[in-house]
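Supplementary Methods, section 5.1.

A reviewer requested that the exact input to the structure prediction be made available. We therefore reproduce it here, unchanged from the version used in the analyses.
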Amino acid sequence: MRKTPVILALLALALLLHAGEAPATKAKDAQDRGAQWLLKQQLPDGSFAPDPKMSDVGITGLAVTALAKSGYAKTPEVEKGIAYLLKHAHEDGAIYNDDGQGLYNYRTSVALMAMAAADPLKYKDAIRKAQDYLAGTQRSEATGTPKTDVKYGGIGYGKDPGRNDMSNLQIALQALKECGYQNDEVFQRAAECAASSQNLQATNP
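The structure derived from this sequence is encoded token-by-token as follows.
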């Protein structure tokens, strides 16, 4: 799917421009051309997908984040994209499609990043609920996971208490950091999980 490379390129350009590590004129031109192309791909329901039957919170969240970080946060297209994401918000704070694929954590995380990039004040209530959902999926004493368990501090797909992995953990932490989540205990537990999973005698004997 052609959209995904464009989305990732826009995110990379936004980071490089912010850090001052890209030739400003050429990078900004590439960023604008990519954003303009992406804007034209938006479907009538506000989503971004190969076709209307495959609209997806995850891809839409990434696209909206890329556009918002490229200077298009206040455009109608971004607002419409956020509206699509919020249409898939659930009572527990998670944001995902009911399509049987799961990916609750991934989809909620990218939706959270999109809202934080677009307008954190306007979407503060949905952001708070998504934050609470992601933090609540972390393995801890609250979920019945003792600190001696290798799964302690990990985050999984969100609905399966039996597993977690580094990919889910990484994207959840990135989303929480980007939206200014303040609970240091969540990040500390995550660091302990990473250390206990590393092939290093000093931290994982």
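The chain has a mean pLDDT of 85. These observations are discussed further in the main text.
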